[in-house]
Amino acid sequence: MLDLMKMPRVCRFENYAAEVGQFLEDHDIKYDRAQLSTKTNTTKHEHYSWYYTIPDHIEFIRQSCGIDIQLFGYSYEKPKGTNQ
Questions:
Q1: What distance in Å separates the CA atoms of residue 43 and residue 40, rounded to the nearest whole number?
Q2: Distance from first CA to last CA of the chain, Å, rounded?
Q3: Residue 51's closest CA among 33, 26, 83, 76?
Q4: In terms of domains, do 47 and 84 share one?
Q5: How far apart are CA 14 and CA 22, in angstroms?
Q6: Confidence of residue 14 (pLDDT cuts 50, 70, 90)
Q7: pLDDT digit string, tens, across residues 18-38
């Protein structure tokens, strides 16, 4: 496993406002909490798993992003109605 004591802080996108806000506070950087929480440039899209349906693509993601997947506890979720 990675030596977490030597890793820089990594903020999860899913918790962007809270984790980036904490980072800014830890470094005494002033910021607007409401602005940080405002979502901009958003798009409607399917669940991420709909875009990774080919087994070779799924395996590529597992290999290339394996550390992130393990570190953050991610898992691949198959889309409803598929047998993958």
A1: 9
A2: 29
A3: 76
A4: yes
A5: 14
A6: confident
A7: 999 999 998 899 999 999 988
Rounded CA separation 54/42 (Å): 26
Range of the domain at 58: 43-84
- Identify whether residues 38 and 48 lie together within a single domain: no
Task: Kindly report the pTM of this predicted structure.
Answer: 0.57
33-61 pLDDT per residue, tens: 999 988 888 888 887 777 877 888 888 98
Question: Taking the CB of residue 78, how many other CB atoms lie within 10 A of it?
Answer: 14
Q: Which residues of 38-55 are buried (b: 16+ CB within 10 A; e: fewer)?
A: eeeeeeeeeeeeeebeee
